[in-house]
């Protein structure tokens, strides 16, 4: 059963009717509902195409945060053979909000880093809803440094509402950890391909998203602050998040137009959660193309070009 | 009330146009409540003489105070796109910019200069907090990148004085992109073999702390400055409990290993010169030798 979003009401109504008709036919074999079901299914598909072809930024925000949206571990299981998670920052703790590990991508050794939000109460708590503490970023730094030494390309899968704001996180230098992680991204001489899967939340995202190539899923968002946060600071009214989402330019199309990302990965109609396999496969193909491109460059040039990529952002606007 | 206020002043006012009377001739110490005359405060580098409380210091005054004899070459303001998102909250961003420019007489938050501090040539970069809370947007990011590039061509250190609420939300994702952009600049200076010193001032928060403000070779902080990633309000809303006393102050960061020393404003030029001379293997001078004692006392 799907979790329907508020704007999906027409779809949920139709699918509810389809479900009832099917049940009716099962209970009483003399009733043939197949025509009606077929008709309703077609209408439901149309409604889905229609609604998803014109999602507002706020609706995209809801899709990006959908609890059933595929997360890091869904991708790592499908895209990387022999995925071997690594744990700990060697300084203080293990932070499961950030996943990092080694694996093979279509035969090639790679390092993989990303945020995992979890998919039920227990796993959400374990992964702290994808909001990392300094230890998470320091683990990322450690794995990037190692990947650099062994010449392994780095794939980052970004999905976080933001770095965790807590006493312990502040005490142990959240800002410094994020700054160092961004710095490490800019220093390695191996390719970095970053994909924004769902939410690219501010500094907590950029810390691992400073790649040579950056892509977003079609309904992902990437922003300096959450729409709710912006609304509460700029309008002093967090209920104006819809407005903030539109004004802040947070969608994949917006970021492509601003020259911040390199491409957009199309999602199935109805969003990634309606066909995870398809979107994971499409993501794999984008990673493969990017890595093929980047692997041709010598390390020094990679790093130079990456730095230039960021220096150039905004200069042509 | 006397006849002057009733009759003469309105006439003079109408002759001059509506001139603003300086509002804050007397400034209240946030710590003790003591009232200090603005000239006395300025003369004491915006430090309340009795309590030692460090008020925010205007960017221009900071540069003048830092460099020997107040002499420095101001770096030009780079041109960047204005309001690329055509952003509007309760007010248009374009109007906010206009207001801040009038209020501060600056193009944007960053002022940078090259000159000598106790004989040591350096580039200094200062945030003007009064310009939209010192927030980091495209103009600030570009000014910072250019300042680092200047330090590289001058073959001299760069000293950063952040004072900022973080990224400028009115520029959305483009402000977030200033984190990697400024980090590139820091890396270039480090690779050129020049020191990068950060002097954290009140307040330094958010995206600024999460990039160039935490990447210095040496971190100094003015006493009592608020330095953090997430602000108190955000944390209290998340964890729903009161925060400990002195949380996220300079002294707290010193205790937690995030800054090297807490330095009083009056001791900053000498301390900077001393550290930079040692790092760049320049001979000791009389002023920096004397400053050593002061700075140690200040951080003890």
UniProtKB/TrEMBL annotation, chain A:
<protein>
    <recommendedName>
        <fullName>Acetyl-coenzyme A carboxylase carboxyl transferase subunit alpha</fullName>
        <ecNumber>2.1.3.15</ecNumber>
    </recommendedName>
</protein>
<comment type="pathway">
    <text>Lipid metabolism; malonyl-CoA biosynthesis; malonyl-CoA from acetyl-CoA: step 1/1.</text>
</comment>
<dbReference type="Pfam" id="PF03255">
    <property type="entry name" value="ACCA"/>
</dbReference>
<dbReference type="InterPro" id="IPR029045">
    <property type="entry name" value="ClpP/crotonase-like_dom_sf"/>
</dbReference>
<comment type="subunit">
    <text>Acetyl-CoA carboxylase is a heterohexamer composed of biotin carboxyl carrier protein (AccB), biotin carboxylase (AccC) and two subunits each of ACCase subunit alpha (AccA) and ACCase subunit beta (AccD).</text>
</comment>
<dbReference type="InterPro" id="IPR001095">
    <property type="entry name" value="Acetyl_CoA_COase_a_su"/>
</dbReference>
<keyword id="KW-0547">Nucleotide-binding</keyword>
<keyword id="KW-0067">ATP-binding</keyword>
<keyword id="KW-0276">Fatty acid metabolism</keyword>
<comment type="function">
    <text>Component of the acetyl coenzyme A carboxylase (ACC) complex. First, biotin carboxylase catalyzes the carboxylation of biotin on its carrier protein (BCCP) and then the CO(2) group is transferred by the carboxyltransferase to acetyl-CoA to form malonyl-CoA.</text>
</comment>
<feature type="domain" description="CoA carboxyltransferase C-terminal">
    <location>
        <begin position="40"/>
        <end position="293"/>
    </location>
</feature>
<keyword id="KW-0808">Transferase</keyword>
<dbReference type="GO" id="GO:0003989">
    <property type="term" value="F:acetyl-CoA carboxylase activity"/>
</dbReference>
<keyword id="KW-0275">Fatty acid biosynthesis</keyword>
<dbReference type="InterPro" id="IPR011763">
    <property type="entry name" value="COA_CT_C"/>
</dbReference>
<keyword id="KW-0444">Lipid biosynthesis</keyword>
<keyword id="KW-0436">Ligase</keyword>
<comment type="similarity">
    <text>Belongs to the AccA family.</text>
</comment>
<keyword id="KW-0443">Lipid metabolism</keyword>
<keyword id="KW-0963">Cytoplasm</keyword>
UniProtKB/TrEMBL annotation, chain B:
<keyword id="KW-0436">Ligase</keyword>
<dbReference type="InterPro" id="IPR029045">
    <property type="entry name" value="ClpP/crotonase-like_dom_sf"/>
</dbReference>
<dbReference type="GO" id="GO:0003989">
    <property type="term" value="F:acetyl-CoA carboxylase activity"/>
</dbReference>
<keyword id="KW-0443">Lipid metabolism</keyword>
<dbReference type="Pfam" id="PF01039">
    <property type="entry name" value="Carboxyl_trans"/>
</dbReference>
<keyword id="KW-0963">Cytoplasm</keyword>
<keyword id="KW-0275">Fatty acid biosynthesis</keyword>
<comment type="subunit">
    <text>Acetyl-CoA carboxylase is a heterohexamer composed of biotin carboxyl carrier protein (AccB), biotin carboxylase (AccC) and two subunits each of ACCase subunit alpha (AccA) and ACCase subunit beta (AccD).</text>
</comment>
<keyword id="KW-0067">ATP-binding</keyword>
<feature type="domain" description="CoA carboxyltransferase N-terminal">
    <location>
        <begin position="25"/>
        <end position="294"/>
    </location>
</feature>
<dbReference type="InterPro" id="IPR000438">
    <property type="entry name" value="Acetyl_CoA_COase_Trfase_b_su"/>
</dbReference>
<keyword id="KW-0444">Lipid biosynthesis</keyword>
<keyword id="KW-0547">Nucleotide-binding</keyword>
<comment type="pathway">
    <text>Lipid metabolism; malonyl-CoA biosynthesis; malonyl-CoA from acetyl-CoA: step 1/1.</text>
</comment>
<protein>
    <recommendedName>
        <fullName>Acetyl-coenzyme A carboxylase carboxyl transferase subunit beta</fullName>
        <ecNumber>2.1.3.15</ecNumber>
    </recommendedName>
</protein>
<keyword id="KW-0808">Transferase</keyword>
<dbReference type="InterPro" id="IPR034733">
    <property type="entry name" value="AcCoA_carboxyl_beta"/>
</dbReference>
<comment type="similarity">
    <text>Belongs to the AccD/PCCB family.</text>
</comment>
<dbReference type="InterPro" id="IPR011762">
    <property type="entry name" value="COA_CT_N"/>
</dbReference>
<comment type="function">
    <text>Component of the acetyl coenzyme A carboxylase (ACC) complex. Biotin carboxylase (BC) catalyzes the carboxylation of biotin on its carrier protein (BCCP) and then the CO(2) group is transferred by the transcarboxylase to acetyl-CoA to form malonyl-CoA.</text>
</comment>
<keyword id="KW-0276">Fatty acid metabolism</keyword>
